[in-house]
Design a protein that fits this description.
This protein is an alpha/beta fold. The protein is built from five helices and seven strands; from the N terminus they run αβββαβαβαββα.
Length: about 150
């Protein structure tokens, strides 16, 4: 019995780093079929923004996020569209707004990958270049806030 317990502990300890490393990971497929993983963006800041077409603060964020995406090579932005009826409507909206960053057609499962139940839109998650959670903001976020945070960290 003692032997089995020792083996169980060794197996458990062997898996702990895997669970820890995966705790902050995600895997999203965007509207063009490209897969995005947190580990795939090592060395860059990664901003994941949950939004909806009907959400006024979300719509106010889009120009700032678009500018960041176009002008800074050290930030990757992934927009996750939530609470929509028709994916085609979301994509028409994205085209109309000329959103340059990846768009994922999301749901509660997407939010759960970040360990959240997503209580409000917009919600933004920022990961540092090492892939560790750096900040979370519920509500409207601006380019100035994002850059101020990055510049001080």
């Amino acid at each position: 019995m003692k032997r089995w317990f020792t083996i169980f502990l060794l197996v458990l300890v062997g898996y702990l780093p895997v669970f820890e490393a995966g705790a902050y990971g995600f895997r999203f497929e965007d509207s063009s079929g490209k897969t995005h993983t947190l580990s795939g963006y090592k060395g860059k800041w990664v901003l994941v923004n949950f939004w909806a077409t009907w959400c006024p603060p979300c719509l106010r964020e889009i120009p700032d996020l678009s500018e960041l995406s176009r002008e800074r090579n050290d930030i990757v932005i992934i927009g996750i569209a939530m609470e929509y009826d028709d994916a085609r409507d979301v994509m028409k909206f994205v085209e109309k707004m000329t959103i340059p960053y990846a768009i994922v057609l999301g749901d509660r499962t997407a939010a759960a990958q970040l360990g959240d139940e997503l209580s409000m839109l917009p919600s933004t998650y920022l990961f540092d270049p090492d892939g560790k959670p750096a900040a979370r903001k519920i509500g409207l976020i601006t380019r100035a806030e994002i850059e101020a945070f990055i510049n001080t960290h």
